Amino acid sequence: MNLGSREDFEVGRLSQIKARKDIGHFGVVLYDPKNSFNVGGALRATGAFGGSYFVAQGNRWETKGGDWRHMDTEGAHIRLPTYLGVPDHKPYIPYGADVIGVELSDDAISLPEFEHPQVAVYLFGPEDGALPVAAASKRIYIPTDRKSTRLNS
């Protein structure tokens, strides 16, 4: 589902976008999210932190009930190109972007210590699983009181 795409973010052209080094941008991809509330919350956060687009790969979350729009209280899906239920996130990665996995793993760098690239895609793993090893070139985690604490349900 494509909600509010801009011409530059059409799937056919997204991988051809060149990074503007003076500005930079980032997108957020959820890899096989478990429920609609996490989709809506992540979409809202993407808009709040200045993201350029949002992608939710897979449709498992649609079978759990609930409506993601209840969590997108700021209407980010109206301002951002939003792609829901796509079978593969790779066509949504802009040319030259670094893919950063966000999950708890032994090789992950703490978010405050991470040097963010000019153009990035932040790929969040599923709540009840992990990203494929080859899905991201770098991995970060968001520190909490305990490294094992999950930030989503």
Nutshell version of this structure?
By secondary structure, the chain is α/β, with parallel strands linked by helices. 14% of the residues lie in helices and 24% in strands.
Largest β sheet strand count, sense and barrel closure: 8 strands, mixed
Strand arrangement across the biggest beta sheet: 1-4-3-2-7-5-8-6
Bin the strand percentage. 15-25%
Q: What is the ordering of alpha helices and beta strands? A: EHEHEHEEEEE
Which class best fits the helix and strand makeup? alpha/beta
Rg of Cα set: 15 Å
Give the tags:
153 residues; alpha/beta; eight-stranded mixed sheet
What can you see in these coordinates?
With 153 residues, the protein is an alpha/beta fold. The chain has helices at residues 11-14, 36-48, 76-79; strands at 2-3, 25-31, 53-57, 82-86, 98-102, 109-110, 119-124, 138-141. It has an eight-stranded mixed sheet with strand order 1-4-3-2-7-5-8-6, with helices on one face. The two termini are 24 Å apart. Residues 1-20 have low confidence and may be disordered.
How do the strands and helices of this protein lay out in sequence?
Blueprint: E1 2-3, H1 11-14, E2 25-31, H2 36-48, E3 53-57, H3 76-79, E4 82-86, E5 98-102, E6 109-110, E7 119-124, E8 138-141
Parallel strand pairs: 2-3, 2-7, 3-4, 5-7, 5-8, 6-8
Antiparallel strand pairs: 1-4
